[in-house]
Write a sequence for this structure.
DNA sequence: AATAAATGATAGTATTCCTATCTTTGTTGA
DNA sequence: TCAACAAAGATAGGAATACTATCATTTATT
């Protein structure tokens, strides 16, 4: 497996392609570390510039603002998820097994293959859990959605919806179940760690991802196996 | 029904009780309008002060920062929700009907009783949908959680979990299902309006709340009626 | 070797997010 | 009724954020 994954990260997300230069890659790599460390609110281009020994102005040449940078990171994540999903589904024809692969993909601690990438997928996972909804929960969402910047997320959602549909063609809400599954898995992991009373893993008997996995599996199959 | 609802809005959320003064009520009332209008990111105390003909410094005497103000608003909402829930559950003993009341409460466009309150519940509803998760998706969540500032949300969640448990005592995840239900209902409404491809209400054939209600009901009963 | 592109260095502006201080107004209760 | 106290207004200001602009320098391209 090569590093070369041809992701269609929408060009409207960035000003200058960060994949095209060393500095660009540094920006993305260190932004993941810094957003993880500080949280998105406290993260600034100035701090990032300091971290990589560059300047604020230079980072602004790559991304309009920090929101776009987050969007870029998440786009990358969504594309990678879809890629991994397709890769793992190869040769799996059993429809229940296909659904299990979806569940495993969404709940596993880190989505494998971390060796050959130049940034930390575990940190990325944490960012997805804690920050991803901030990318669409904004006033300008409809405006920026016109530029197709959420296409990668929609594609992933559509792919999962397809597998749901294969499993139970009479189920009416494959897309909504797909997004609910994705988002609820993030939430439950977050709650397990930070607000455990909102879950049934109160005293953290098992790990956040184990608990979430069990809950999500139970929910998914009950919804889909019900007549 | 009187205005007097004795809510236990945690004192650690505010510096000076906004319920105690006219100005305090103005702050809360207009902050709801302004957060709705601008979105939480663009909302500032300066703009709010201008709106109510007061000053920034004065608002800081009530709330430490805008995050606390949002927390206060949501606390009020969660308390109100729990109050409404208990009120509606009176005299309802049929366990399926009790669950229907939960669903209706969470998905109805505005939670009734808007006349006697001095702020707009419809706007509040929009804020809950678009901004509520920002209140906990922060780096300091564990820190501020120690002050019990999320108690109202946990109580609401626990109450719904109780009803879920009554309906199906063998179901293992009443709390997680409760939060998933609440959060997923917000999400689906948001997606219906802003990113409809993430739902199965693509061309908005029915209203966001009608669609969400149908989806949530289907999900809830399938999860709980499954053997 | 000439030229263009990318980056660095620096500066500056408007706004945000506060904190401090001083004055005025309104309330209470001795 | 007057003292004193709390709330609010007015104003100032500082550190940080979120940019934009300009010009010099380095690096790659042809």
């Amino acid at each position: 497996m090569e590093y070369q994954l041809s992701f269609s990260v929408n060009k409207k997300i960035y000003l200058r392609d960060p994949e095209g230069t060393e500095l660009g890659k540094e920006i993305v790599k260190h932004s993941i570390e810094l957003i993880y460390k500080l949280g998105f609110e406290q993260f600034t281009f100035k701090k990032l510039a300091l971290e990589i020994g560059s300047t604020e102005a230079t980072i602004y040449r790559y991304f309009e603002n920090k929101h776009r940078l987050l969007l870029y990171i998440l786009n990358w994540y969504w594309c990678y998820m879809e890629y991994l999903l397709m890769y793992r589904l190869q040769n799996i024809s059993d429809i229940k097994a296909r659904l299990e692969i979806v569940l495993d993909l969404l709940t596993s601690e880190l989505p494998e293959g971390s060796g050959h990438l130049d940034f930390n997928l575990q940190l990325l996972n944490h960012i997805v859990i804690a920050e991803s909804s901030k990318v669409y929960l904004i006033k300008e969402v409809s405006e920026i959605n016109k530029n197709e910047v959420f296409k990668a997320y929609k594609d992933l959602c559509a792919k999962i919806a397809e597998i749901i549909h294969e499993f139970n063609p009479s189920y009416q809400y494959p897309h909504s179940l797909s997004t609910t599954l994705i988002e609820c898995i993030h939430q439950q992991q977050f709650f397990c760690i930070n607000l455990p009373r909102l879950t049934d893993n109160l005293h953290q008997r098992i790990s956040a991802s184990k608990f979430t996995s069990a809950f999500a599996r139970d929910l998914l199959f009950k919804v889909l196996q019900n007549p």
